[in-house]
Amino acid sequence: MAVPGCGAGRRKNRVASVAGITIIPGMQLPRVIQPETFLGSRDFARVARAIRYIDENFRAQPRLATIAAAARLSEFHFNRLFRRWAGVTPRQYLAFVTARAARTALAGPASVLDAAYTLGLSGPGRLHDLLVTLDAVTPGEVKAHGHGVRMGYGFSDTPFGTALLACTSRGLSHLSFVEPGAEAAALDELHGAWPRAELQADDAAASALTRRIWGDADAVTGRLAGAPLRLAVQGTNFQIRVWRALLELGSAGPTTYAALARAARVAGGARAVGNAVGANPVAWLIPCHNVLRTDGSTGGYRWGTERKRAMLAWCSLRLQAADRGRSRVLAVAPASAAARPT
């Protein structure tokens, strides 16, 4: 699983159809998180429980000790873990959730979706984009069940718990989140999708790819160095169409199943679109966590609703921080210019 070759290799037997370069916002964020702060599934579960507790109980303005107890940690260890993950303290996140609710209340008839987790996720707040191309494997490759394909795979900690990543010379083909003790089942799922592929374990390469996805942005621009990240996925023609539409809608942040059905040109097909979203083989990069119900509630998620809630919160917090940082730079710039000698 040599990461530099992930998506770099080219075969004469190209993909059946190729979507052009697509921009996914919020996938690559400021250098707030460093690779060593990524979490295994156990620590992430504690953070996810705390986020759910704060989201459900913010009106009571719970004390830090109460929130820490919900995460099943001491105040000291919980505060440090949460700040390492979120870039803010639990109390600051509580204030963020409270302010968001206040804005929603003041907005009057605006829909919940308009207010839920969207701060900084559209317009000028959309920063640090990750370029991703999505290719479909050929019908012949699907029929061969991966015969002749070398696939490197590995487990790695991420901001959202342990993940299993699998990559061929064509690109990243699998990214799923794995609960403690479920590693063997995750590998069985991967082998079931590619039963005749030659699988080779490489956790170090998986960790390097994880850093590329979540941690290796340029410190100034926030953009990845090098070529776009290529995905090479298996799916029906309908699934591929939905995943491409989801990549496009991902550039505007959270969306709905109904809006995704319209983008995929599936009239009245929200349920079928939902099934395709649930079959997404590459978490995060194909941003199925951004699909909400029409009323703004999170709905289901293949890798757990608490993880989906945490993903939305993580993106929103970091993009809000990036907007604040950019505003400070813009505010200082005129004074600095005026101070220069002429």
Structure description:
This protein has 342 residues and is an alpha/beta fold. 44% of the residues lie in helices and 14% in strands. α1 crosses α2 (64-71) and α1 packs across α12 (305-339). The model is unreliable at 7-35, 109-130, 217-225 and 326-342 (pLDDT under 50).
Strand content: 5-15%
Q: What does the radius of gyration come to?
A: 21 Å
Number of contiguous helices: 12
Question: What number is the mean pLDDT?
Answer: 76
Helix-strand pattern: EHHHHHEHEEEHEHEHEHHEH
Count of the domains? 2
Intertermini distance = 56 Å
Q: How many beta-strand segments?
A: 9
Largest sheet: 4 strands, mixed
Basic shape: globular
Unreliable runs? 7-35, 109-130, 217-225, 326-342
Structural class from helices and strands? alpha/beta
The side-by-side strand order for the widest beta sheet comes to 5-4-3-6
Helix content: 40-55%
Question: Notable features of this structure?
Answer:
342 residues, alpha/beta, 2 domains, four-stranded mixed beta sheet, three-stranded mixed beta sheet, 12 helices, 9 strands, globular, disordered C terminus
